[in-house]
Amino acid sequence: MQLNQALTILKDEGYKYTEKREDILSFFNKEDGYRTASDLLSFLSKKYEGISYDTIYRNLHLFSELNILESTELDGEKHFRLACGHEEHHHHFICKSCGKTKAIKSCPMNLLNIDFNGYLIENHKFEIYGLCPNCN
Amino acid sequence: MQLNQALTILKDEGYKYTEKREDILSFFNKEDGYRTASDLLSFLSKKYEGISYDTIYRNLHLFSELNILESTELDGEKHFRLACGHEEHHHHFICKSCGKTKAIKSCPMNLLNIDFNGYLIENHKFEIYGLCPNCN
DNA sequence: ACATTTTATCGTAATGATTACGATTTGTAA
DNA sequence: TTACAAATCGTAATCATTACGATAAAATGT
């Protein structure tokens, strides 16, 4: 996802354009991998002394709702990354060292042949963890 | 996994047999699904007034290391269940309402055909969430 | 059975991530 | 430029989890 694309979504949905929001998006754009609220706080604190937790978390949640960010939970902490450009449903390999990802286009839900008669399937999670070539 | 089987593991590994440990195991045995530390605390508090967090978490971690329990993280909270023991590597459908599970025997790692050249694959997570027939 | 040793537990405080909220500031549109 | 809604600040509260010195209890050897 491009930065201006994300800012357009914000504007179209009636949310305000702020410098902090632009900086949050540019942070995720340059980082190119899963990052925590704490990572973002450190980054923004350099420019905005005394930035509030409220701002960090409110925007992370807002961006997630707007599908600008996608998130996953690793080691008891939520991690966020810019939503992938390609629109189709997909999964990720996630590097445990640098947080960068590799898309997995095929989904196990299509490959499995299980009888879920009587069950209501809501969602699923498939992630592969390890080290990317750079960190390996 | 059977209770006496778990208690045998404890004994063989040199850990002490305590009534609390037996109660913890019988709790997971009767519950038959993923439960939190808080669930366990509520249960044990009925019998042991003033039971310590230390006891709860120390035993949950110990049992996980000994493969008596298996765990997963759901909604920011660790959940535990009796290990499926003897069975092969597998995954789970997990009911978001009652925590009960249904085993998925096939593993997506065998079904996918992805080039991970240069990557180090350490582990993976595949879970399906929804409602079981009882809760649906 | 008793003493010794080792492990388990208690009581409670600390930590880390996240959420909450009244007061204040700021973007936006009229 | 004014008015209003949204965003942010400052800070405290909450929730899950970890930590640790003091005490209790189980296992072991005599």
User: Which regions of chain A contain 5 or more consecutive residues with pLDDT less than 50?
Assistant: none
Protein chain pair with the most extensive contact, residues per chain: A-B, 32 and 32 residues
- Taken together, the total number of domains of chain A comes to 2
| Mean pLDDT across every amino acid position of chain A | 93
Can you put this structure into words, describing what you see?
Chains A, B: Belongs to the Fur family. Chains A, B: Its cofactor is Mn(2+); Fe(2+); Zn(2+). Chains A, B: One of its GO terms (molecular function) is DNA-binding transcription factor activity. Chains A, B: Zn(2+) binds at residues 95, 98, 132, 135. Chains A, B: One of its GO terms (cellular component) is cytoplasm. 2 copies of one chain form a homodimer. By secondary structure, chain A is α+β, with helices and mostly antiparallel strands. Chain A folds into 2 domains: 3-82, Winged helix-like DNA-binding domain superfamily/Winged helix DNA-binding domain (Arc Repressor Mutant, subunit A, Orthogonal Bundle); 91-130. The first copy, chain A, has 5 helices and 6 strands. The first copy, chain A, has helices at 3-12, 19-31, 37-47, 53-65, 108-111; strands spanning 35-36, 69-74, 77-82, 91-95, 101-104, 120-131. In chain A, the strands form 2 sheets. A 3-stranded antiparallel β-sheet of chain A has the order 1-3-2. Chain A has a 3-stranded mixed β-sheet with strand order 5-4-6, with no helix packed on it. In chain A, a hairpin with a 2-residue loop joins strand 2 and strand 3 (77-82). The longest helix of chain A has 13 residues, at 19-31. The radius of gyration of chain A is 17 Å and the shape is globular. The two termini of chain A are 27 Å apart. The model of chain A has no long low-confidence stretch (mean pLDDT 93). Chains A and B meet through helix 5 and strand 6 of A and helix 5 and strand 6 of B. Strand 6 (120-131) of chain A pairs antiparallel with strand 6 of chain B, so a sheet runs across the interface. The structure holds a DNA duplex (30 and 30 nucleotides).
